[in-house]
Amino acid sequence: MPHVLDTAVWTEHRAAVFGAAYRILGSVADAEDITQEVWLKAHRSDLTEVADLRAWLVTVAARRAYDELRSARARRETYTGPWLPEPLLTGPDAAEPVLVDELVSTAVLLVLEELTPAERVALVLHDAFGLPFAEVAGVLGGSPAAARQHASRARRRVAAVRDRPRTAADRAEHARVLAAFRAACEAGDLDALIRLLHPDAVYLTDGGGRVRAARKPITGGTRVAEVLLRVARRLFADLPRTSRRIEAGGEPALLVLRGGRPLCVDTLHVVDGRILALHRVLNPDKLRHL
User: Which GO-annotated molecular functions does the record name (predicted)?
Assistant: First the structure.
């Protein structure tokens, strides 16, 4: 291994560095900052004795993200309204290559938010990046046995959501429901929206106190449909509405623009052919990268 990191080698591993930070933090901006920090640290370090560069880079990113997550938890306790992860553009919409797995979907990222920082880091490093528990323990500051327990608890929480007795949509079904949702919203068709929404649907909006948004979850398919159309009439009374399908977190999503500027990103959790959860990111700080 050369003693310095050249640009070509860094480019090969950048997606893993960013991916580790994003899975731990759920923030594109913070993950980008940590990625830049890792690049600077690696560029200035003597890597002669590093046997596995990818693991070394991911570990550096995880250690920094772990510190950031612990302080972020305190900030999120005072966050205005529901907190949702920043939409991560993937597939053809991504400016840089992105590693995609279930841990970057909105539904799973919300589960990761419920874990302790140690559980989240252990799950990401071991299950997503294949680091042995001895290395995970080095990041967490405990024993390999403790790291294994953290990952096991986290895995059970994620599995409990994944294995619920409902049929999750495949990609084609997800895209079909998203297209129907988009058409119903743009047409103002209340009946069509009610048919698309599960009776137990939950609608979460993240405005972060920066824009007007519901500060508590809205529940019930009919209620959610009525709120969606009422909000649309207010938002688009004087400016044109456009929308386009994007890929965010490895899943089809909807980018809505108002007057040509990003207004929100909608991601859907579709089960049994209907929308069980609608997550809308309105906070402009979380849309800057779009």
Answer: DNA binding; sigma factor activity
| Domains of the chain, first to last | 7-160 (1.20.140), 171-286 (3.10.450.50)
CA–CA gap between residue 254 and residue 243 (Å, rounded): 7
First to last CA, the chain: 37
> What are the φ/ψ torsions at residue 43 (nearest 5 degrees)?
-65, -30
Of the candidates 141, 100, 108, the residue with the CA atom closest to the CA atom of residue 269: 108
In the block, tokens 């994003």 appear at: 22
Q: pLDDT tens, 64-117?
A: 999 999 888 777 778 899 999 999 999 888 877 788 888 899 989 999 999 999
Strand order in the sheet with 197-206: 218-219, 197-206, 274-281, 261-271, 251-258, 241-248
SS3 percent helix, strand, coil of the chain, rounded to 5, is: 55, 15, 30
Q: Name the residue among 228, 253, 233, 229 with its Cα closest to residue 243.
A: 253
In degrees and rounded to multiples of 5, residue 168 shows phi and psi of: -70, 150
Nearest to 19 by CA among 5, 35, 43, 6: 35
Residues 183, 192: contact at Cβ < 8 Å?
yes
Which residues make beta-bridge pairs with 218?
203
Per DSSP bridges, beta strands 274-281 and 197-206 are: parallel
Nearest one of 5, 8, 69, 70 to 38, comparing CA atoms: 5
Neighbouring-strand partners of residue 264 = 256
Report how far residue 169's alpha carbon sits from residue 268's, in angstroms, rounded to the nearest whole number.
Answer: 10
Which residue reads 């959610």 in tokens?
224
Residue 273, token pair as written in the block:
């052919």
Q: Closest Cα to residue 276, out of 177, 210, 140?
A: 177
> 11: burial class by Cβ within 10 Å (0-12, 13-18, 19+)?
exposed
Q: Under DSSP, is residue 263 helix (H, G, I), strand (E, B) or coil?
A: strand
